[in-house]
């Protein structure tokens, strides 16, 4: 039943009916007082979500635009930066930094492994001139969560560096207290934990980030955050924003507020645990190093050399659940289950049941049918 | 009745119910074959709309992003460019060009007057090194249409220059045959003639524009059109696009195809004429020079020194029609009636009736009530 397809990829994620209804309303003028009220309300809710007193600016564009904005608004040509690279998105920020002529040192970890804070410490200690550390918090390509808290605290004690974090699949899934952890720039996108469609992205800026902005000389116009800040101070936008996406954003953030941050984080953690337990119980292998599983996405290596794409396709065609494949060299090697945003316990049970069914269908389920569902259920009912 | 507000501003424009319904559907995976079909279909329809065999690329972002992309993907630092400047948007492209270190010569005309092709001819004739001419076709801030055809033909015969045009409020309103007029880059935005909400923008690129791209050295990442072209050749996008906006785009372009280009252009022309006749009949003054009125927006100077904002507010509050005010130094001096996109004869009649009513209410309607409506009606029923 193609019309009943549900999304368990790491974005776009499922969208509540209330949000879709808001999205489908007739647009209004983006310079009207009615729209200013929406900008005001969403800005306040975004600050709540980021746990910050700083600015959170909304850009019409994808998460990549937000991340690029964070980089090019705080740095200058030739600036020394350290980029963490342990997946596809880490690689992307290296490309952005190089496209603008930054002087990039990379701290690498194998895909599936987390970045080691010690490596950042050593580099920061020996060079006062480093201007930024750029990392991906939850690496969507591998399902690994990096220790942003530890790395950000190292950056805080450095003389000149700011902390720039891609929190695209961590904001709205786990705790990312921007001010408490001293993160200077956070980028995120609407089609993730926000439980709304893609098209808006967000850049949060600390006071230290704005200070860095004053010396930034990289050319920019559409992504010049000074224009967004100036407009945001009047509850407006510098250019025509995605008006209908704003309607959806307001509704989505209200739903998040109703659920509450603690409950959101707990739900994602339970779902991550349930999937991990189920995967272990049926004898497949978790791709992320133990203890570093992302709260929003779990990468799994199939057993018996099965091509992961076959599992993905069977689950899509038979059970109308879209899960993600591996990216780049992981294509066919892993599949990825998204459990981010508007996901409930039923979704977790069904995706595990579908996974077991696909393995059984291929003749490689080495445990009785229901083993995975039982393991997941135990976590879900006891937590 | 605030809930029944209708838009007659130059964007966002009214959106058909079919498009809103498409917008409000549940998102699908942006890497799925189902979505690739949508990219393929919209790309073909965009080429039809632009009357081109070249590429039309879709960016998630506002029209400003598309225009910036057109400039930074074809030019290099220090390049000599000529910018036409006879309104707010002309000014904006000068700012973009300067932000990226281009060497800008401006050709100016008073707001309300069109750009003079002769001025471009003189500059192009005396300098072989000019790399681009950048103009706004329909200047939204003043309601003036510039002679893009004539200017583009001058550029065609120049050795090195390409023609970059902001067609944000002309595409889908009047004839802009990209290939026939030898326009190299056309930028536009979804909330205008496309009759869908804001959030997507479009950059059309000729072969000559791609040749210019090969020597372009300006830094870019999110707006790097090579990534969009590479992805578009596989019916995909480089970054997560506004998936729901794509649903709306497909439906909107289908509606445009059903109406047909000739019918669309004729309708906009009739509406422009009807409003112009009505404005003259009731003794107000058209801001644009005669013969240079935009097919999508008409700027009007009120009589008896009435503040244009008062007329705008009265029409909004009493008749639930949102028209636009003047921008920058024209604030209070003019109001602007948008007649772009999903606008029918009834809308034209009602906005003129509302205008007459507001003047009557203020005691400055110097003609019998109904004079404007009569003038508009004559055009509408006889054309």
Written account of the structure:
Two copies of one chain form a homodimer. The first copy, chain A, is globular and about 60 Å long. Chain A has two domains: 17-259, Type I PLP-dependent aspartate aminotransferase-like (Major domain) (Aspartate Aminotransferase, domain 2), CATH 3.40.640.10; 261-382, Aspartate Aminotransferase, domain 1, CATH 3.90.1150. Chain A is 42% helix and 17% strand. The longest helix of chain A is centred in the last third of the chain and has 21 residues, at 261-281. The mean pLDDT of chain A is 97. The first copy, chain A, is of the alpha/beta class and 383 residues long. Chain A is built from 13 helices and 14 strands. Chains A and B meet through helix 1, helix 3, helix 4 and helix 9 of A and helix 1, helix 3, helix 4 and helix 9 of B.
């Amino acid at each position: 039943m193609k019309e009943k397809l549900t999304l368990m990829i790491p974005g776009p994620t499922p969208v509540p009916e209330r949000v879709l209804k808001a999205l489908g309303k007739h647009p209004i003028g983006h310079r009207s007082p009615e729209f200013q009220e929406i900008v005001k309300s969403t800005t306040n809710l975004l600050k709540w979500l980021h746990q910050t007193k700083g600015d959170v600016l909304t850009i019409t564009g994808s998460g990549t635009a937000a991340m690029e904005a964070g980089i090019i608004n705080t740095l200058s040509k030739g600036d020394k930066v350290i980029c963490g690279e342990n997946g596809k998105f880490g690689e992307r920020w290296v490309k952005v930094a190089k496209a603008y002529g930054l002087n990039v040192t990379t701290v690498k970890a194998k895909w599936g492994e987390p970045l080691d804070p010690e490596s950042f410490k050593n580099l920061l200690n020996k060079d006062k001139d480093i201007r930024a550390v750029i990392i991906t918090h939850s690496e969507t390509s591998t399902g690994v969560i990096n220790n942003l808290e530890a790395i950000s605290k190292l950056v805080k004690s450095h003389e000149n560096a700011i902390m720039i974090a891609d929190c695209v699949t961590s904001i709205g899934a786990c705790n990312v207290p921007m001010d408490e952890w001293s993160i200077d720039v956070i980028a995120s996108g609407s089609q993730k934990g926000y439980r709304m469609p893609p098209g808006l992205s967000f850049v949060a800026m600390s006071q230290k980030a704005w200070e860095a902005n004053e010396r930034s000389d990289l050319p920019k116009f559409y992504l010049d955050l000074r224009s967004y800040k100036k407009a945001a101070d009047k509850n407006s936008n510098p250019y025509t924003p995605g008006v209908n996406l704003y309607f959806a954003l307001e509704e989505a953030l209200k739903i998040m507020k109703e659920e509450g941050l603690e409950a959101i984080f707990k739900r994602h953690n339970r779902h991550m645990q349930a999937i991990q337990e189920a995967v272990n119980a049926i004898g497949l292998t978790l791709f992320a190093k133990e203890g570093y599983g992302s709260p929003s996405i779990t990468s799994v290596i199939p057993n018996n050399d099965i091509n992961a794409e076959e599992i993905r396709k069977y689950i899509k065609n038979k059970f109308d659940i879209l899960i993600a494949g591996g990216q780049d060299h992981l294509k066919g090697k892993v599949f990825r289950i998204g459990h981010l945003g508007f996901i409930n316990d039923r979704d977790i049970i069904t995706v595990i049941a579908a996974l077991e069914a696909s393995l059984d269908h291929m003749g490689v389920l080495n445990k009785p049918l229901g083993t995975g569902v039982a393991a997941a259920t135990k976590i879900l009912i006891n937590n």
